Every structure is written in C-alpha cells, then in structure tokens.
C-alpha cells in the first residue's frame, strides 16, 4: 500500500493512509476493506492540511478500524435477525434468503466490489417492497404535522439512515432493511418532522414527542446498529 504516514499529533495513535487527489471540493475520509484508510482530496490540497485533517479524526478512525476487525465474517442482519452469509460461485448471480442464512451466488471472477454492489442492489429491491409501505402506514403523522405526504427516495447511505430536502421529499437508506421494523418507523418520524421543523430545535423534539413518545429510547437503540456492506469481502464468506 502506498501509504503516507501521519505525523504523531496524538502519541497514542499514528494513522497510515493513502491520498487520492481528484476533482472534488472537500476532503473526505474513507475506510476501505483490509483496514486501508484513503483520503480523497481536491487536487491542490497540501499534504500538511491532509495530515492535520486525518489527525483531527484519528479517534474516529481508530474506532472504525476496531469495528472493521470485528466484522470479518459476521452475520448480516435482515429486519434485525442475523443471517449467516454464504458466498457460492455459480453460473448466475442471485441471492436466496432463508431463516438462518443469506446465500449470495456470484460468478467466477467476481470480486469484493461485485459482492458489495450486488448485495446493495438486492437491498434496494427489498427496500422498495418494504419502506414505502411503512411510510403509507404512518400517513397519519403527516396529518398531525400538517405537511403533505412526501415523495420517497431510496438509496444506500453509509453514514446516515435518512435525510430530507427543502423540496419536500425524504430519503431513506436501503440499509434500514437490516434493522427491526420499529427503527424504520423512528427514522420516518424523524424525517417527516423535519418537513415541519427543519432544524433540531425544541419545537422539533416537541413534535417528535407527539408522533413517537418513545423516540428517546429509539434514538439510543439505533446507535448500536451500523451497516457494514462496504467492508464485506468475498473471502470472508466463501463456501468451500
């Protein structure tokens, strides 16, 4: 790995990372499979600025690296229930979900990125069947908030469960299919409330209290979950 060693701003932690200069406006940190830390930065960004940026986020990176170590070969959650992931090399790609297993059939020559993209595509298919129905079942929340039932967009998001736009639609992460159903409802309540109150002011939480009195425990509970699709590797799950 062509890594650039970070300066030891924090004596407890030295982060090795590689830099990828590209057309973008901001600096971003990406944790890749195998524990590789990649910094993506605008082309004229100085290495000192990048190094300082990495060190400022060193605690977060160390925490994520530790989580990645724990994820090697771990189960995949579907609606909160763990399934053992099995990768099988076959003549056609498909995914079979059973009570205890999630079997991913890949083609010979498919790599880690193929596994992740195919699994994300499957998650989108499941989310399209599941999440719009949850929003419809909670349409009375829109009436309580006195907002129009929003358009719904679904996509895989690595770092958030949902978001909303000033244009009046909400985005939900397809990774919500990994969580118990109640957490999808919590995220829907959160994003619908933002259509009424765009910030996180006292008024926002007053409305949340009306929609979902248990929102505090739901917020605490959802923090124990995270999606790990972007870290999955074929070798961890390959059926021998």
From TrEMBL:
InterPro entries: UTP_pyrophosphatase-like, YgjP-like_metallopeptidase. Residues 25-223 form the YgjP-like metallopeptidase domain. Gene3D superfamilies: Metalloproteases ('zincins'), catalytic domain (3.30.2010.10). This is YgjP-like metallopeptidase domain-containing protein. It comes from Sinobacterium caligoides. The lineage of its organism: Bacteria, Pseudomonadati, Pseudomonadota, Gammaproteobacteria, Cellvibrionales.
